[in-house]
Amino acid sequence: MENPKGINPANDLTQGAILPKLLKFAVPLIIANLVMQLYNVVDTIVIGIAVGDHGIAAVGVSMPVMMLFGALFMGASMGGNIVISQMFGAKNMEGLNKAVNTTVFIAFIMGVFITGVGIICVRPLFNLLNTPAEIINDAVVYQTIIFGGTVGNLFFMLGSGMLRGMGDSRWPLYAMIIATLLNVVLDTLFAIILDWGVAGVAWATLGAQFVSGIVLLMRINTGAYGMKISFRKVIKPDGFTASHIIRLGLPTGLQAMAMSLGGLIVQRFANNFGADFVTANAVIQRVDGFALMPLMGLGMATTTFTGQNIGAGDPDRARKGVYVALGTILSVAVVMGVVMWFAGASLMKIFNVSDHVLAIGLKGIRTICFFYAFMGMEQCLAGSLRGAGAAMPPLINSFAAQIVRLLAAYYFAIIPLNKAIQAAVDAGKFASFELAKAAGVGMEGYMPMYLTMAFGMTLGALLNFLYFRYGNWQDKGLEQRRGPGGSPMPQGAPVAADAPDPQPEG
After folding, report:
1. Staple partner for 176: which of 32, 82, 313, 499, CB 3.0–4.6 Å?
2. Cα–Cα distance, 349 to 28 (Å, whole number)
3. Is residue 497 very low, low, confident or very high in pLDDT (cuts 50, 70, 90)?
4. Which helix (H) or strand (E) holds 169?
5. Considering Cα of 471, then 391, then 382, then 92, what sign does the dihedral take?
6. Average pLDDT over the chain, rounded to whole?
7. What is the pLDDT of residue 322?
8. Alpha-carbon torsion (278, 283, 286, 288), positive or negative
9. Residues 161, 167, 172, 173, CA torsion sign
């Protein structure tokens, strides 16, 4: 089928050899993810210099809170990206135009909501998480500023996602490079020269993302993709497209929210082991991210690949693409695991943390590195299922894995910790439970926190693989391609703009 205007053959993942197409699309995503991790590393280094260990912990403890509120936007964005990739694969330019403008409308509403509710709830949330007193004020300051700039951050996330859905992974990379370079300059100015501390890091993040987001939206509106973002169309979203986006995005948002709520509970568990353990976790997230970014990049590429090929009516090619991606992910995961085992300590030293924090972090990363393959599989399979339109199974599987992880963490980490503290009180060593906890009793029992995290990822990967292997995921996307009256459409035909709403997922 001849590509219509705006469909660049280089961005069309429905044709050509699978592995070269996947890698060509994935490599810029991987580089962008690595640059993003460098972006986060620079933030952490600057905080370490300007504020110290407690500053790193304050930003680290904010991550689950950001993820919880970001889940709402993530759902809307992912639902839009799935529809965009399917419309692009189907060569339906009218539907693509509606999908892009409707996604902008939904995401903007979500961004305003997150800003308002987030600012109101930020301190009560940190209190609920039992955040250590020495870091809570910095955490509140950092998170309040981030919430205040949600709409600016929306431009960057939304633009990157829409371009990926249309098969362009290069411009999101360019924007990430711009954001990183600008972030270095602003971090240095705000946090070190002006001595704004964690507030300076937050303002630098918002400024860098806002500028790079504007670059992406300007790129989309050049007309190079056969569509444009129009204010008139944004404020008058298409009803069918909106319902389609919400139907696909809601399970993704709920999944992200469930993971974030699980992360908040785990963060509360982690806070019981003291500020040093929280700091070590923040450092691990920065270092560990360099290993996970290639795996996540391949997973993101498979999501778009699956969406485009389902949109084109070719589930067999979509399935083959997922298997090719899984094989590549397993190979990369083994290499990354070996690198982190031997180089993890050297990488963590650049964050200027104490020897005790470094020792905790090294034990953690040498545990997690054995499970990189399962982390990559979970990301790839969940993303592929969503890209195909089967958004509900990853939600159910993720929820089951989170429940098992939380129960295991409580049973194997928190109960033994409380028993050790109470035993010290009963032995007369301390006058109260709080004094024994403040003295660090039982804090050496943190290893189950890492083990249960790895186990949760492994379980999620296995559940998603079982559904991918034996479920009817490919039928979900094909249902979304029905013509008027529910009649099936020929393979490769554009999706009708007035097609009836597809059946709800089981």
Report:
1. 32
2. 28
3. very low
4. none
5. positive
6. 82
7. 94
8. negative
9. positive
Tokens of 476: 């979900």
Distances (CA, A) of 435 to 126, 132, 133, 422, 425: 22, 14, 14, 11, 9
Rounded Cα–Cα distance for residues 79 and 495 (Å): 17
**Does residue 466 surpass a pLDDT of 90?**
yes
Judge contact between 310 and 477, C-beta under 8 A: yes
Provide φ and ψ at 353, rounded to 5°. -95, 165
Structure tokens, 427:
């032995």
Q: In 350-483, which ranges are continuous DSSP H helix? A: 355-368, 372-387, 392-409, 415-426, 433-438, 447-470, 473-479
Closest CA to 329 of 449, 174, 180, 464: 464
Based on its alpha-carbon atoms, the radius of gyration of the chain, rounded to whole angstroms, reads 23
Return the number of other C-beta atoms located less than 10 Å from residue 61's C-beta. 29
Separation CA 118–CA 114 (nearest Å)? 5
CA 247 to chain centre: 20
Residue 167 has pLDDT above 50, yes or no: yes
The amino acid sitting at 477 is G
pTM of the model: 0.77
Cα–Cα distance list, 327 to 12, 333, 334, 471 (Å): 22, 10, 11, 20
Q: Is the pLDDT of residue 323 over 90?
A: yes
CA–CA distance, 33 with 309 (Å, rounded to integer): 24
- Residue 427 CB coordination number (10 Å): 9
Amino acid of residue 243: S
Q: Which helix (H) or strand (E) holds 24?
A: helix 18-50
Range name among 118-127, 167-176, 385-394, 472-481 with the lowest pLDDT average: 472-481
Each residue's pLDDT tens digit, 117-148: 888 988 998 888 778 888 888 889 988 998 88
Q: Which long-range contacts (CB under 8 A, 24 or more apart) does 27-30 make?
A: 27/169, 27/297, 28/169, 28/170, 28/172, 28/173, 29/164, 29/169, 29/172, 29/173, 29/297, 29/298, 29/300, 29/301, 30/293, 30/294, 30/297, 30/298
Q: Examine the pLDDT at 328 and tell me if it is beyond 90.
A: yes
Q: What is the DSSP string of 215-264?
A: HHHHHHTTSTTS----HHHHSS--HHHHHHHHHHHHHHHHHHHHHHHHHH
DSSP string computed for 255-295: HHHHHHHHHHHHHHHHHTT-HHHHHHHHHHHHHHHHHHHHH
Tokens of 326: 């899984």
User: For 191, which DSSP code?
Assistant: I
The mean pLDDT value for 410-436 works out to 88
